[in-house]
Amino acid sequence: MRIYMQTRSDESGTPRFYQLSLQQDLLGGWTLFREWGQQGARSSMKREIYLDRDSALSAFEKARDSQVKRGFRVVFSQGLDSSHAH
């Protein structure tokens, strides 16, 4: 599952982005990738590993909600539906 979020353009006219991606690994664990930066510039990435889906999904949702509170808006989401809601 994946979410891509953006802010409105800042003083420089370039929006900032924040992307979350949650993937299951071959051993049954889950990896949460966070990538952020300014559109068209170098970005930063962080990877977090979780042993179970519920912990990973909770971290994913918490990160999404935190960025929405900071002014990011969801531009694209994939793999999210009502079966993933808590």
Overall spatial form: elongated
The tally of helices reads: 1
Indicate the proportion of strand residues. 35-45%
CATH architecture type: Single Sheet
Total DSSP E strands: 5
**CATH fold descriptor:** q64v53_bacfr protein fold
Element string (H = helix, E = strand): EEEEHE
Level-1 CATH class name: Mainly Beta
User: What's the gyration radius in Å?
Assistant: 14 Å
Strand order of the largest sheet: 4-3-2-1-5
Mean pLDDT: 89
**The number of domains:** 1
Low-confidence stretches: 82-86
Helix percent band: 10-25%
Alpha carbon gap, first and last residue: 15 Å
- Kindly name the structural category: alpha+beta
Q: What's a quick, concise take on this entry?
A:
The chain is α+β, with helices and mostly antiparallel strands. Helix content is 20%, strand content 43%. It has a single domain (2-84), classed as q64v53_bacfr protein fold (Single Sheet).
Task: Walk me through what this model shows.
With 86 residues, this protein is of the alpha+beta class. It has one domain: q64v53_bacfr protein fold, CATH 2.20.140. 20% of the residues lie in helices and 43% in strands. It has 1 helix and 5 strands; from the N terminus they run E-E-E-E-H-E. It has a 5-stranded antiparallel β-sheet, with helices on one face. A hairpin with a 5-residue loop joins strand 2 and strand 3. The longest helix has 17 residues. The protein is elongated. It starts with a strand and ends in an 8-residue tail after the last strand.
Supply database-style keywords.
single chain; alpha+beta; disordered C terminus; 5 strands
